[in-house]
Write a structure and sequence with these properties.
This protein is an alpha+beta fold. 56% of the residues lie in helices and 12% in strands. It is built from five helices and three strands, in the order H-H-E-H-H-E-E-H. Strands 1-3-2 form a three-stranded antiparallel β-sheet. It is globular and about 50 Å long. The termini are far apart.
């Protein structure tokens, strides 16, 4: 594991990879894919049915997630199954959800909502 510098910023060579990995979270379809894979390993055909999106679109987004090391794939017969690559991904999703929820509450209170 790379250590943070004395100023608390991760090592310079780590930052571009972190930015690339975090950018993989920047599309709602990719987030849906990650949430689906929280429950179990799925083949592309199961993902297509669950999200009701074209197979080519699903494959494109899975490719981004795989390139950033967030999902892994394995061939089972003529199917390719996908699963999360790390048990830490659910924690990252939960943190992001908490941060966004908190921010939405703050915005709502500023405009006179709940």
């Amino acid at each position: 594991m790379l250590r943070a510098t004395s100023k608390g910023i991760p090592a310079e060579k780590l930052l571009p990879s972190m930015a690339d990995m975090l950018s993989a979270f920047s599309h709602p379809i990719r987030l849906k894919l990650l949430y689906l894979l929280l429950k179990s390993e799925l083949c592309v055909c199961e993902i297509v049915r669950a999200l009701n999106l074209p197979q080519a679109l699903i494959s494109q987004h899975l490719s981004v997630l795989r390139a950033q090391g967030l999902v892994k794939s394995k061939r089972v017969g003529n199917r390719i199954s996908y699963s999360l690559s790390s048990e830490k991904i659910p924690h990252l999703l939960n943190l992001a959800e908490e941060i966004v929820s908190q921010r939405l509450k703050e915005i709502s209170s500023l405009i006179g909502g709940e």
